[in-house]
From TrEMBL, chain A:
<keyword id="KW-1133">Transmembrane helix</keyword>
<dbReference type="Pfam" id="PF03334">
    <property type="entry name" value="PhaG_MnhG_YufB"/>
</dbReference>
<protein>
    <submittedName>
        <fullName>Monovalent cation/H(+) antiporter subunit G</fullName>
    </submittedName>
</protein>
<feature type="transmembrane region" description="Helical">
    <location>
        <begin position="6"/>
        <end position="31"/>
    </location>
</feature>
<feature type="transmembrane region" description="Helical">
    <location>
        <begin position="43"/>
        <end position="65"/>
    </location>
</feature>
<keyword id="KW-0812">Transmembrane</keyword>
<feature type="transmembrane region" description="Helical">
    <location>
        <begin position="71"/>
        <end position="90"/>
    </location>
</feature>
<keyword id="KW-0472">Membrane</keyword>
<dbReference type="InterPro" id="IPR005133">
    <property type="entry name" value="PhaG_MnhG_YufB"/>
</dbReference>
Automatic annotation (TrEMBL), chain B:
<keyword id="KW-0813">Transport</keyword>
<dbReference type="GO" id="GO:0005886">
    <property type="term" value="C:plasma membrane"/>
</dbReference>
<keyword id="KW-1003">Cell membrane</keyword>
<keyword id="KW-1133">Transmembrane helix</keyword>
<protein>
    <submittedName>
        <fullName>Monovalent cation/H+ antiporter complex subunit F</fullName>
    </submittedName>
</protein>
<feature type="transmembrane region" description="Helical">
    <location>
        <begin position="39"/>
        <end position="58"/>
    </location>
</feature>
<keyword id="KW-0812">Transmembrane</keyword>
<dbReference type="Pfam" id="PF04066">
    <property type="entry name" value="MrpF_PhaF"/>
</dbReference>
<dbReference type="InterPro" id="IPR007208">
    <property type="entry name" value="MrpF/PhaF-like"/>
</dbReference>
C-alpha cells in the first residue's frame, strides 16, 4: 500500500527542485540578454516556472508532512493563496511596466526591424 | 529514511540554487542601464525571495514566515504599478 503523504511529498519536492533550476536559468537570462524587451522573456520564466510552480510544491509538501503539526494546513493554504495571487498579479505588473517603458521611451528599441505600436501612436490612433 | 529527514535534505539542497539566482538578479539590479531593467530585477528578486521564505518555513517548522511571503509578493506588484504610473505621467498619486 502506498502512503499518501509520501506521494504528496515526492511530487512537491520535484516541483520545488524544478522551480529552483528555472530560477537559475531565468537569472542567467536576465543577466545576459541584450535589451529590456528581451529580458522580459527571461522574467516570465522566473515568475511562472520559478515562483508559481515551487509555491504549489511547498503547499503539497506542507500538506503531506505530519511532523509540522496542526499548523501545516495553515502553511499549505497560505502557499496556495500566494501562488494564486502571483499567477494573476505578476503578468499584470510586467505588462504595465512594459507599456510604460515603450510609451515614455525609457528603454530604447535598438535592434529594430518594425515597430507598429510606435507608428500607430504617431498617427494618433492610440494614445 | 523517515519523512522528516527526507524533506529537510531535499529542501536544503534547493537553498544554494535560490541563493545563487538571487545574487545574479541583484547584479542586474546594480548594473541595469535603464529604470525598467532595475524594476523587473527587483520583481524577480521579490518573487524568488517569497519562494525562499516558504521553503525556509518548512525547514524551520515555523508557520509565521508564510504571511511575509504574501506581503513581499504584493509589494513587488505595487512597485510595478507605481513606477509605470510615474513613467507615463511623471507624477505619483491619483
Amino acid at each position: 500500500m502506498i502512503d499518501m503523504n509520501w506521494v504528496l511529498v515526492i511530487i512537491g519536492e520535484t516541483m520545488v527542485i524544478w522551480g529552483a533550476i528555472c530560477n537559475l536559468i531565468a537569472s542567467i537570462g536576465l543577466l545576459r540578454f541584450p535589451n529590456f524587451y528581451v529580458r522580459l522573456h527571461a522574467l516570465t520564466v522566473g515568475t511562472i516556472w520559478g515562483a508559481f510552480v515551487p509555491l504549489i510544491g511547498v503547499g503539497l509538501i506542507a500538506a503531506g508532512s505530519e511532523f509540522l503539526g496542526d499548523y501545516r494546513w495553515f502553511m499549505a493554504g497560505a502557499a496556495f493563496v500566494t501562488a494564486t495571487l502571483l499567477l494573476f498579479l505578476a503578468p499584470v505588473g510586467s505588462h504595465a511596466i512594459a507599456r510604460a517603458a515603450h510609451k515614455s521611451k525609457a528603454a530604447i528599441v535598438y535592434p529594430k526591424v518594425v515597430d507598429k505600436l510606435e507608428e500607430d501612436r504617431e498617427k494618433g490612433e492610440i494614445r | 529514511m523517515d519523512l522528516e529527514t527526507h524533506v529537510t535534505t531535499v529542501l536544503s539542497a534547493a537553498i544554494p540554487i535560490f541563493t545563487v539566482s538571487i545574487i545574479l538578479y541583484s547584479i542586474r539590479f546594480f548594473k541595469g542601464p535603464t529604470i525598467p531593467d532595475m524594476v523587473i530585477s527587483v520583481d524577480a528578486i521579490s518573487y524568488a525571495m517569497a519562494v525562499f521564505l516558504t521553503v525556509l518555513a518548512v525547514i524551520f517548522k515555523s508557520p509565521i514566515l508564510i504571511p511575509c511571503a504574501i506581503v513581499l509578493m504584493l509589494w513587488a506588484y505595487a512597485l510595478d504599478i507605481y513606477v509605470a504610473k510615474y513613467l507615463e505621467a511623471k507624477e505619483y498619486g491619483d
